[in-house]
Amino acid sequence: VYTDLGGGIELKMLMIDYVKKISQYCKSKKKNFKIIAHNCSELLDSDEYLAAIDGVTQEDLVYDWNSNGKSGKQTDADYKKEVINNLLIAKKAGKLVLVLEYVSGQYYQKAKSLLDEYNFVAYSAPRDLGTLRTT
Questions:
Q1: Which of 2, 98, 83 is nearest to 44 (CA)?
Q2: Which residues are CB-contacts of 9 (< 8 A; sequence separation ≥ 6)?
Q3: 29 beta partners
Q4: Measured between alpha carbons, how far is 33 from 44 in angstroms, rounded to an integer?
C-alpha cells in the first residue's frame, strides 16, 4: 500500500510502524498470534519490522505476474536477486519464508528447485486462488 501511495522513506517508516502496532495489539490479545507479511520484501531490512513479523510471503519471485498458470516469463534477474537477498534476511532471522508461484508442471518444478536452495517454502497456485493444488 505504501508504494501505491508513492513510496518514499516517510511512507516506508509509517508502514513499519503500522505493522509493528498491529503485531503488538494482536499478540497482546493472543500470545501465539502470527503476523505473516505479504510481499514488500524491501521492508525486511528494518529490524523493527522484522521483529514485528513471524514470516513473509512473496508472490511471483521466479515467474513474473503475467504467468498464465502453466508457464511464464521469468522475472528480471536483478529483481529476483534483490528480493531473494531481502528474503534471506528474514530466513536468517528465523522467519518463515513462503513463495507463491502461479505456474505448474515443469515450470513449477524449476521454480521449486531454485527456492529449495534457499530453504524457502514453495507453493504452486492458480492465479485466481480458487482451488488448492497438491505440489
A1: 83
A2: none
A3: none
A4: 20
pLDDT at position 135, please? 58
The predicted structure's pLDDT at residue 70: 65
Which one has a higher pLDDT value, 61 or 67?
61
Q: What is the DSSP letter of 30?
A: -
Give the mean pLDDT of 53-80: 87
What the block records as the C-alpha cell of 27 is 499478540
3-state helix, strand, coil in the chain (%, to 5): 45, 15, 40
The reported pTM is 0.90
DSSP string, 28-69: HH-TT---EEES-GGGGG-HHHHHH-SEEEEESSSB-TT--S
- State residue 56 phi and psi, 5-degree precision: -145, 140
